[in-house]
TrEMBL record:
<keyword id="KW-0805">Transcription regulation</keyword>
<dbReference type="InterPro" id="IPR005561">
    <property type="entry name" value="ANTAR"/>
</dbReference>
<dbReference type="Pfam" id="PF08447">
    <property type="entry name" value="PAS_3"/>
</dbReference>
<dbReference type="InterPro" id="IPR036457">
    <property type="entry name" value="PPM-type-like_dom_sf"/>
</dbReference>
<dbReference type="InterPro" id="IPR052016">
    <property type="entry name" value="Bact_Sigma-Reg"/>
</dbReference>
<dbReference type="InterPro" id="IPR013655">
    <property type="entry name" value="PAS_fold_3"/>
</dbReference>
<feature type="domain" description="ANTAR">
    <location>
        <begin position="13"/>
        <end position="74"/>
    </location>
</feature>
<dbReference type="InterPro" id="IPR029016">
    <property type="entry name" value="GAF-like_dom_sf"/>
</dbReference>
<dbReference type="Pfam" id="PF07228">
    <property type="entry name" value="SpoIIE"/>
</dbReference>
<protein>
    <submittedName>
        <fullName>SpoIIE family protein phosphatase</fullName>
    </submittedName>
</protein>
<dbReference type="Pfam" id="PF13185">
    <property type="entry name" value="GAF_2"/>
</dbReference>
<feature type="domain" description="PAC">
    <location>
        <begin position="460"/>
        <end position="512"/>
    </location>
</feature>
<dbReference type="InterPro" id="IPR000700">
    <property type="entry name" value="PAS-assoc_C"/>
</dbReference>
<dbReference type="InterPro" id="IPR035965">
    <property type="entry name" value="PAS-like_dom_sf"/>
</dbReference>
<keyword id="KW-0378">Hydrolase</keyword>
<keyword id="KW-0804">Transcription</keyword>
<dbReference type="Pfam" id="PF03861">
    <property type="entry name" value="ANTAR"/>
</dbReference>
Length: 760
């Protein structure tokens, strides 16, 4: 599995810890054997050397290890009571001893098995079957990630034949272990939903790695769901998987053993820098690094060092930053799996005199037997710029040219042939023949361009319509400059053609759009002007105060948005034929001419309804019918009141509008909210009516929501602020209304209308 720098350091620490544990175990074992030798010296009356030979002979005759025989001798000498020191060792090692015996037996059988088929049979007989397993499969992995059944045991030949080859991409337990490069333990294969050879039960699937190369997979099969296994069993199967890897490696070596000299000869034939790497293993046989075994003649070091400082060195020693970058990981992966790696851009960073040097290169990594071939090509700045220029010409639809006027030689870029609609093998068109390929209306412009460049020796440009051979007309811009010798004689002309058709048609469309937009703006402005005039005619910002019948009435109206937005707020204060006073405010939803005309309709309709002598509730009921049936989907809120000067009683009703505010004795309160839906919302609606007895000095305010509403504040808080401000009224009624408008902090960009009524 690919390792990071931290994981490699952790692996080194783990290896040292394992070596210490093995040394401690070996020391414990030697102590136990020395005790047994002491027992034999005492019983046989012989020397230590003779006792050692005798211990080995007895162990061989009993088919046990010397360590097991030593334990038996010490136990017998202690009369079946193990001493504290021996007991501590045996208790710690008892579980591992039985596993170790089976492991050593299986190891011997595997090493003597020869081919992979016999190895599989030995693993099942000596290691897997004692663990309860009934089948073993050894898979060989190819470089394309396909799997081949190299050996099997406990599986019928017919089933093995069906599973002889598993193509790349098929999800099996072996494929999972191959991808993860870690042991996979499956409790129940059927529950996991992964098909595989052998019985459907528990599985232990372990990758076989030899010297850092992933050669295949060892799969051990149980007929029933598998219980969690102790660590000795895990270690035992890991060791057997490694041995199976040696068998697979031997089979692969027997099938094909690449000659390193042939690989070096292949590297020498390349024009790019090439390195032949050989694996460098640590004391445990694990891959630690790669040795640079060969450099081809074209090799150039990334940091400019001589070849002698790189050849023969370890990869991480020659390029220490490779361990922190991608290079070492990719080399390790290719060596482990056999999968080739190739990229057009890989960034290398190395330290040169404590200064980081970054190089970009294309790289190819392939495995050949036990060696890895790394080929890199440092990115050439000139080639990279040439590629960028080609892309720029393609994206900008630009093609360059150079015309030698003395020799008549013309050079075109490849993009220019496509722009002119010519085959790459066609002859370029000279500048002198440019008019023959242009629209006749553009010939004068081309003639002026040619005179500027050829006669006056100055840079010039022209735009014309190119008539291509395929019948397609394109809008082209040509720019060129003369190339002069020291004497001022014309040597050549270089320049470029650019297809500006898209720009031309965009400009045409933009011009047409501007014309339509200007017409639209003019129409909107005219409509807006008429709407504003209508609004100002009907709803002036301030009307003269009305003072009659013991009342003083003042009105203030402030449109929002100036001349750009016309709203539908309205107000009315008029003396009726019955000598009563009609008071109303309303708000049409929306803006513009529709809102203004709707306001006129409802305001005038309410005046006509008031002449009938009906109460405010009845008038709003009729006004709702007008809004719903006789207008173009108008929705509005309104407050309507009728004041009787003789009784000082105000009858009022509301249709979804804020209730009026009564200011009396330095205290402001809102009248109770009466029921009543928006005008025009329903075909039929009823509106509750109420009365309020006014007193001398009272002030009543009718207003639209543009006076108080804020987007970020609840409506109740906005109303509470209005009550606080209204309670502090001073001065005349007109002053109070002006103060309300000036102090309003509404931010809804809506019209504001206020009607004030003061009893005198």
């Amino acid at each position: 599995m690919s390792a990071t720098p931290v994981s490699r350091l952790a692996a080194t620490v783990e290896r040292l810890r394992r070596e210490i544990q093995e040394a401690n175990a070996a020391a414990d074992g030697r102590a136990l054997i020395e005790l047994a030798k002491g027992v034999l010296v005492e019983r046989l009356r012989c020397g230590p050397a003779h006792a050692a030979r005798q211990l080995e002979t007895l162990a061989e005759q009993a088919s046990v290890t010397p360590l097991e025989l030593a334990a038996d001798l010490v136990n017998q000498a202690a009369q079946d009571r193990v001493t504290e020191a021996v007991g501590e060792f045996l208790v710690r090692a008892s579980d591992e001893l039985s596993a170790a015996v089976r492991l050593r037996t299986a190891e011997s059988a595997v090493l003597s098995g020869g081919d992979t088929q016999r190895v599989a049979e030995s693993v099942l007989a000596h290691a897997a079957r004692p663990l309860g397993a009934t089948a073993v499969a050894i898979w060989s992995a190819a470089t394309d990630s396909s799997l081949t059944l190299a050996g099997f045991a406990g599986i019928t030949p017919g089933e093995a034949s069906r599973w002889r080859y598993v193509p790349p991409g098929v999800a099996t337990p072996a494929r999972r272990a191959l991808i993860e490069r870690e042991p996979v333990w499956i409790e129940d294969l059927a529950a996991a939903g992964l098909p595989s050879v052998g019985p459907s039960g528990g599985r232990a699937v372990l990758p076989t790695v030899t010297g850092g190369r992933l050669l295949g997979v060892l799969e051990v099969c149980w007929p029933r769901p598998l219980e969690p296994q102790p660590q000795p069993v895990h270690r035992q199967l890991d060791a057997l998987a490694e041995l199976c890897g040696h068998a697979l490696d031997a089979d692969a070596a027997a099938a094909t053993t690449p000659d390193v000299s042939e690989l070096e000869a292949l590297a020498d034939g390349l024009f790019d820098s090439a390195l032949v790497l050989r694996p460098h293993l640590d004391d445990t046989g694990a891959l630690a690094d790669f040795r640079i075994a060969h450099l081809n003649p074209a090799f150039v070091d990334l940091t400019g060092r001589p070849r002698g400082l790189v050849s023969g060195a370890l990869l991480l020693e020659a390029y220490p930053m490779a361990g922190a970058g991608q290079l070492f990981d990719k080399v390790e992966h290719v060596y482990a799996t056999g999968e080739s790696f190739r990229t057009e851009r890989m960034t290398f960073t190395e330290m040169v005199d404590q200064v980081p040097l970054t190089v970009v290169a294309a790289i190819s990594i392939t495995r050949h037997g036990d060696a890895v071939l790394v080929v890199w090509r440092v990115e050439d700045e000139v080639a990279r710029l040439a590629t960028l220029l080609q892309h720029a010409q393609r994206l900008g639809r630009v093609g360059g040219f150079e015309e030698n006027t003395a020799l008549g030689e013309i050079t075109w870029s490849s993009q220019l042939y496509s722009l002119w609609g010519l085959e790459p093998a066609a002859d370029p068109v000279p500048l002198a023949q440019l008019t023959a390929h242009a629209h006749e209306d553009d010939v004068p412009a081309i003639d002026r361009f040619l005179r500027t460049v050829l006669r006056y020796r100055r840079a010039g440009s022209a735009a014309f319509r190119l008539l291509r051979p395929d019948g397609v007309a394109r809008h082209i811009r040509v720019v060129a400059e003369p190339v002069l010798d020291p004497s001022g004689h014309l040597l050549a002309v270089r320049g470029a053609f650019q297809d500006i058709s898209a720009q031309h048609w965009t400009e045409v469309a933009l011009s047409a759009t501007r014309d339509r937009l200007a017409d639209t703006e003019q129409h909107v402005a005219e409509q807006q002007r008429l709407t504003v005039q209508l609004q100002h005619a009907i709803m002036p910002a301030a009307e003269p105060s009305i003072e009659a019948f013991g009342l003083r009435i003042a009105v203030r109206y402030r449109p929002s948005g100036g001349d750009h937005v016309v709203g539908g707020d309205w107000y009315d204060a008029v003396v009726l034929p019955s000598k009563q006073v009609l008071l109303s405010v309303g708000d049409i939803t929306g803006h513009g001419i529709k809102a203004a005309t709707g306001m006129v309709v409802l305001r005038n309709a309410l005046r006509g309804l008031a002449a009938t002598g009906a109460g405010p509730g009845q008038m709003l009921t009729w006004l709702n019918l007008v809004a719903h049936h006789l207008t173009d989907h108008i929705l509005a809120t309104a407050v309507c009141g009728v004041y009787d000067p003789e009784t000082r009683v105000l009858r009022w009703a509301r249709a979804g509008h804020p209730a009026p505010v009564l200011v009396r004795g330095g205290k402001a309160t809102a009248l109770p909210l009466l029921s009543g839906v928006l005008l025009g919302a329903l075909a039929e609606g009823t509106y509750e009516q109420d009365e309020v007895q006014l007193e001398v000095g009272d002030t009543l305010l009718l207003y639209t929501d543009g006076l108080i509403e804020r987007r970020d504040v609840p409506l109740d808080e906005c109303l509470e602020r209005l009550l606080v401000v209204s309670a502090r009224f001073e001065g005349t009624l007109e002053d109070r209304l002006d103060d309300l408008l000036d102090g309003s902090d509404s931010n809804t960009d809506d019209d504001t209308c206020v009607v004030g009524l003061q009893v005198t």
